[in-house]
């Protein structure tokens, strides 16, 4: 069996790293946890956090380019809101149900 408190902490750290996503170093937190943890649920949460980082960056670039056409401004606002709301939901789910990894909706999974 895996330590539930450790699982909660590491999973919350993976998803919480998204709050400092303006820095590219923030992706290092879930990568580091993915590499050092042997817990399968923590590894899945780390992969999801890494994938969410990539998706936020990709959508940010696309919507930023579209903002020059004034189409992307509402999309950038929506992305900003979702990049805060979805990690909060992931942290809450990781703490309330530590035996199941959180899966972000509407993202491409590269890892």
Written account of the structure:
Helix content is 68%, strand content 0%. The protein has 4 helices and no strands. It has helices at residues 4-16, 28-36, 40-67, 72-96. Helix 1 packs parallel to helix 3 (40-67). The radius of gyration is 15 Å and the shape is elongated.
Number of helices: 4
The span between the termini is 25 Å
Number of domains: 1
User: What structural class results from the helix and strand content?
Assistant: mainly alpha
Secondary-structure element order, N to C: HHHH
**Proportion in helices:** 55-70%
Strand content: under 5%
Global outline:
elongated
Q: Main β-sheet, in a few words? A: none
Short characterization:
The protein is mostly helical and 111 residues long. 68% of the residues lie in helices and 0% in strands. The protein starts with a helix and ends in a 15-residue tail after the last helix.
Write the layout of secondary structure elements.
Layout: H1 4-16, H2 28-36, H3 40-67, H4 72-96
Name some characteristics of this structure.
111 residues, mainly alpha, elongated
